[in-house]
Structure formats: C-alpha cells, structure tokens
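#struct-help
A.M.: can someone run this one for me? Single chain, 335 residues.
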Amino acid sequence: MGFVVNYLRNLVPVALGRQPECPLLFSYYVTHRCELNCAYCSDGDGKRFKVERIPELATGQAKQLLRILRRETDTLDLTGGEPLLRTDLEDLLAEARALGFRTVLNTKGLGLEERPDVWRLADVLVLGVDALKPEKLAGLIGHSADTARRVLAVLQHVVEKRNGTGVRIVLSAVAAPENLDDVEEVLRFALEHRLGFHVSPQLVGTQARTELRDSPRYRELIDRVRGAKRTQRGVLGVEAYLRGIRDFTRFRCHPLLMPVIRPDGRLYYPCLESKQAEVSVLEAGSYRAALSAARARYGPIPKCRACCHIFCHMALSLLQRHPLAALAEGKHWRN
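D.P.: on it. Structure tokens below:
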C-alpha cells in the first residue's frame, strides 16, 4: 500500500461521515532527546518532549518496526525530539529507503554538515527555521546566539549542497506573537531559493495562543502565505488549512491518517495529544493488530473539532477532505 492508494481508499469513509483508517504516513518519534528549549515545543500537555524520557528502540528493533509499518504505507516521517541525536539515524534512513519508504526528516539540523548521508538518504528534509536573525532565533530556541548561528549555517549549507541529491528541502516555521515579521522573512527566503515552506501557529497545550487569535498582524501574515501559494510553487497546505489557521475554524480531525509512534515503539491512540500509548506495535506484530488492541482499550475516536491547529493532523485531515485541492498539492512537494 502507498500514500496515493490509501488516499483513494479513504475517500469512501470520508464521504459517508466515518473516520478513514488507511494511513497516509506514519510519524515515528525516534527520540525525545533534544539540546534546545524551543518556546513552542509542546507534547500536547504543554511540556517539552524532552521532559518525558522514554526509552528508545535499539537499531535492530527500530528496523523491525519500519518493516511492520511498510506493510501499510510508503511514507514515513522521522521526528523527535531531535532525530540527529540518534547516532544510528543513517542506518534507519538507509533501511527505510531499502524498504521503499519515502522519508521525511524533521530536524533543526545542528551537526548536519558533518553527516551528509543523513540528508542525502532522506527524500524530504524539513528544517525548523522560525527567524533568520540569530539574536531573534536564539530567543525562540531557548539557546545562545552562537547556537542560533549554527542553525542558520546549516540552512545555508544545505541550500548550497542540495544540487544533485534529489532531496526536497522544506522550511517549517512556527508563528508566535513575537516572530510574525520573522516568519514572513523565512517565507521570502524559501521562495527565493526554491524551497518548500509551511507554517503553523504556536500552541499552548493543544490550543493556539490567545494573542494570535486577536492579532490582525497574524491574519495578515497568513494571507500573505495564501497569496504566495496562489502565485508560486512551494507553499504547503491546502487552502482550507491556511484559512483554518488564519481564522481558527473548527475542522474534523482524522488522526489515523498519520498514526504516531513513540520512541519505545508504542502507538499513540488515536493521536499523540491523547497521551494514550500502552500498545506496542512490535509486540502486536502488525499495525492493524496494534490499532485493534488500542481501540479495545480506549474506545472509538472522539469527535475532536476545535483544537490542534497545527500542520501535521490538521493539514492532512483537510487534504483528505478536499480531493481537488489535493491534486494540485503535489507540485508544491516536488523540487
């Protein structure tokens, strides 16, 4: 099975008002470890991921997990924490490629210059960049200006070295009341250098910060992003998503489009924000068996319509619900 086939299979349950259950991709949190203290980092409970120390699968176990997940779809998101803190990340990416996964790697990029195989083995490299000025970025990542300069140096490095690698580089920005002008600069940089771009509002727990809801400048920023999407390639997220994060409208979430796996191989059900993760995919032997066990333990997916205005679940849910817009979205993911 793959992304496109599963998307088509999901159209019928969506049309009938049911939850689609064919995963478009899996999101595997390979670690919760991170050396930064980003102001917006939140696990849904309002605390940073690194606060919850969860054991990580050994390399062999992680590869076994990838083999199980590959039976269900062909797209894999590797995230954290900071995935680069895993010294075996190259091995995991190589295994994913050998299995036929299209891999998306989410990282701040510190140390990436010394590990070229990491980003050459990924199909999409998502760099978290929320400002282009070191002093401003330092405040957002909770670290020194020197560290912020290192983050920006990684950005420059991959822009210069990407030719011939085939990797798609996407800049991911979190819009907070303090960096709205900076996010617009990141957008301009992405468009000028033919990079992908997506934006999410800062959440507190699962809710957008109140200051954003009342901010004309925030709405203006999102409208500029919408305008850029209409005229140029690279801005990610269907129009319904961009309008949704501008106006914080209600939407029906379909969390099983992107099942989330913890560092220890347990499945969050129905999503990370629920914090319900007692079922191990490895022990269950298959994703479907793990899903069945989680549903038996926790019950059906709740009707959640008013929270989590963030790119992952919201953008995928609205992508699934708007097939014509989804057809046009492919060009924004290509180099």
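A.M.: thanks! The chain has one domain: 3-333.
D.P.: also worth noting: The first strand starts at residue 26 and ends at 29.
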